[in-house]
Design a protein that fits this description.
The chain has one domain. It contains four helices and no strands. It starts with a helix and ends in a 5-residue tail after the last helix. The longest helix is centred in the middle third of the chain and has 18 residues. The chain is mostly helical and 69 residues long.
């Protein structure tokens, strides 16, 4: 199943933990910094919401990219 469809399905099922991982995966697959930041912000928001273990890693990457302070 394509990544976009997995993301849509996770949204439909309200599987926030899976959304963190899928958005992080999307960030790793795109070409531009702008796209990476978009997907990482999405992942970070959901990670904070559910207390996901990737939250600190995502935060660090967003700080390094100048998106988060």
């Amino acid at each position: 199943m394509p990544l976009n469809n997995k993301i849509l399905k996770a949204h439909h099922n309200k599987n926030l933990s899976l959304l963190v991982e899928l958005y992080q995966e999307a960030a790793d697959k795109v070409l531009t910094r702008k796209e990476q930041n978009f997907f990482r912000v999405q992942a970070y928001i959901y990670a904070l919401e559910v207390g996901h273990h990737l939250a600190p890693i995502l935060y660090k990457k967003l700080v390094e990219a100048g998106v988060e302070e």
